[in-house]
């Protein structure tokens, strides 16, 4: 029996639905293979979409794992408020690993007002994974963000020290994933690996997913530093000549406010952001993350040590 072209077309998934189906499959695979998975959640757009997909994968039950936020203490207030509202609405448990706890315990050194706490997250993340005895950690990284993340597989093995070796990657032929690991080891899992920034925003529009307001155009007092605009916040020590000014901006990515820049923009709706993202040639991290500019291989060095 032959299948007509119209019948065949009815079973074809759109680009976004194919990405969604892949992510749902990954969530279910990990839930079946792992004993204690956890979802890393920053309150940014990628982790919000990831949590939305997790909720879809296990609906009508809530996701069968907690959410873990690594808190530098230098977050945007709007993002923390949104984080709390989101996890409460979904009925999932929120765990918070605080960098300040590791500073107080002497495990890391506070860089002070002129330094960045973002690199300190690695120690807090590894401690939180060990304390929670998590054997799989979902992350919202995408391969299009920057070069080091483009090297990741969907299932990314971490040894007993939480370290990543880009040369020791497991094959993933025909979407078969190997989650095997020994005592003390774990797997980082990236359900959004094959998504792009544009895919994220188009999916947000299609699913009507709420995001923190800082992703959309708003008035903010900023300073200009190294061709970036940073929020004029007391946590950011001013350099000579850095005078604050008002600008209409939005954030393309959300992280530690001391190293996350914004872009001048009038995009106040999801549709307008999609138009803006479709036209840009710069990735969100390359354009607005000071910590990624610290060294040529900065992200890869940190990932080797156990960063997200």
Number of strands: 10
Main pleated-sheet profile: 6 strands, mixed
Strand order of the largest sheet: 3-2-1-4-6-5
Query: Helicity, in percent?
Result: 25-40%
Number of helical runs?
11
* Uncertain spans: none
Shape: globular
H-E string: HHEHEHEHHEHEEHEEEEHHH
Structural class given helices, strands, pairing? alpha/beta
Distance linking N and C termini: 50 Å
What does the radius of gyration come to? 20 Å
Instruction: Report the β-strand fraction as a percent range.
Output: 5-15%
Mean pLDDT over the full residue set? 86
Describe the overall structure.
With 308 residues, this protein is of the alpha/beta class. The protein contains eleven helices and ten strands. It has helices at residues 5-10, 15-33, 45-58, 77-90, 99-104, 121-132, 147-150, 197-207, 270-279, 284-288, 298-305, and strands at residues 37-40, 67-71, 94-98, 136-138, 155-158, 186-189, 218-225, 228-231, 245-250, 263-264. The strands form two sheets. Strands 3-2-1-4-6-5 form a six-stranded mixed β-sheet. The radius of gyration is 20 Å and the shape is globular. The chain starts with a helix and ends with a helix. The model has no long low-confidence stretch (mean pLDDT 86).
How would you sum up this structure in a few lines?
This protein is of the alpha/beta class and 308 residues long.
What descriptive keywords fit this protein?
11 helices; 6-stranded mixed β-sheet; 10 strands; 4-stranded antiparallel β-sheet; alpha/beta; 308 residues
Write the layout of secondary structure elements.
Elements lengths: L4 H6 L4 H19 L3 E4 L4 H14 L8 E5 L5 H14 L3 E5 H6 L16 H12 L3 E3 L8 H4 L4 E4 L27 E4 L7 H11 L10 E8 L2 E4 L13 E6 L12 E2 L5 H10 L4 H5 L9 H8 L3
Parallel strand pairs: 1-2, 1-4, 2-3, 4-6
Antiparallel strand pairs: 5-6, 7-8, 7-9, 9-10
Helix pairs in contact: 2-3, 8-9
